[in-house]
Design goal:
five-stranded mixed beta barrel; 17 strands; about 40% strand; globular; alpha+beta; about 300 residues
Length: about 300
């Protein structure tokens, strides 16, 4: 967890003594931007989550319980709220093994794998999530990711027609994979044939160019943690913000990954290259997501 504090502008805390981290947590929990207090139905334990936001999207959340009118911290996590709502037909949520966080499980065809992410708005679900998990149909998910580092790559040479064709192709593949999941035999044949063609093309090109001149975008599981991934995608928006406590600068990037937008935060000192629209970002991220329930009025 401490590794990702740099992504929200606390790189100095990552390498500092432990006492500096606890001082930061104490200061931000006493003056939160917003907080959520709820009671667990089975134990009647009063839980509190205090959030200190630094730019509307970046924040540091601390959770624990209230006993004898005192807040006792149990966990903390840095977070980033995604900027784009991706519609979701179905999503599953499970409590983490320690019962302190909620994991989202999303079988999203565009990624070609099941995406597991840390749920940012955990307070919306902690009260009613059973130990066996819960499956429901939300409005959508705002995907985001914290990166401990990353690299900016030059864009692939594409005309406007190429971009339109790629967008249409990815949308078609996404529809076919969703139809395949529903049991459409014709769609499954199209997906399998396209995968076969892509595989042959990659083998043919292997050894002639580096992989990043062949592959435009990808979303791959990374490492031993279930919610960490390696991504590559086009930058569609980029802005730099400053953490008002540490003074460190952070890049917030909207990255188009497999026709899906993931908002990524990375410390400016940990990013190699200068971000710009149409350039590409490659890095390892801790995947997060804000699940918007159907009862929400948010569009």
């Amino acid at each position: 967890m401490r590794n990702y504090l740099s992504a929200i502008g606390f790189k100095g805390v990552w390498s500092a003594p432990e006492s500096k981290l606890w001082s930061l947590l104490s200061a931000t929990s006493k003056a939160p931007t917003r907080e959520h207090v709820y009671t667990l139905p089975d134990t009647e334990e009063i839980r509190r989550v205090a959030c200190r936001e630094f730019d509307g999207q970046l924040g540091l959340a601390q959770g624990g319980y209230i006993a004898h009118d005192r807040f006792r911290r149990v966990y903390y996590f840095p977070y980033l709220i995604g900027s784009t709502l991706t519609p979701a037909e179905k999503c599953e949520i499970y409590p983490r093994h320690d019962g302190l966080a909620v994991l989202g499980v999303w079988d999203y065809p565009a990624f070609g794998c099941t995406a597991i992410f840390h749920v940012v708005n955990t307070w919306d679900y902690m009260q009613r999530i059973p130990l066996s998990g819960h499956s429901f149909r939300p409005v959508g998910v705002r995907l985001s990711g914290l990166a401990a580092g990353g690299m900016i790559l030059i864009p692939m040479e594409k005309t406007e027609e190429d971009r339109k064709f790629q967008k249409k192709y990815l949308e078609t593949m996404k529809r076919d994979e969703e139809a395949w999941a529903r049991g459409d035999f014709a769609a499954s044949n199209r997906v399998l044939r396209q995968n076969e063609i892509s595989g042959r093309a990659s083998m043919h090109m292997m050894g002639r160019d580096d992989v990043y001149s062949i592959v435009d975008t990808f979303f791959l599981p990374e490492g031993f943690e279930s919610d960490t991934y390696q991504i590559l995608g086009d930058i569609t928006a980029a802005r730099q913000v400053q953490n008002d406590i540490s003074g460190e600068k952070v890049w917030i990037l909207d990255v188009s990954v497999c026709a899906t937008t993931i908002t990524v935060a990375v410390n400016a000192s940990d990013l190699r290259g200068e971000p710009a629209i149409h350039r590409r970002f490659r890095g390892n991220i801790w995947l997060q997501g804000s699940i918007i329930p159907t009862s929400s009025t948010e569009a």
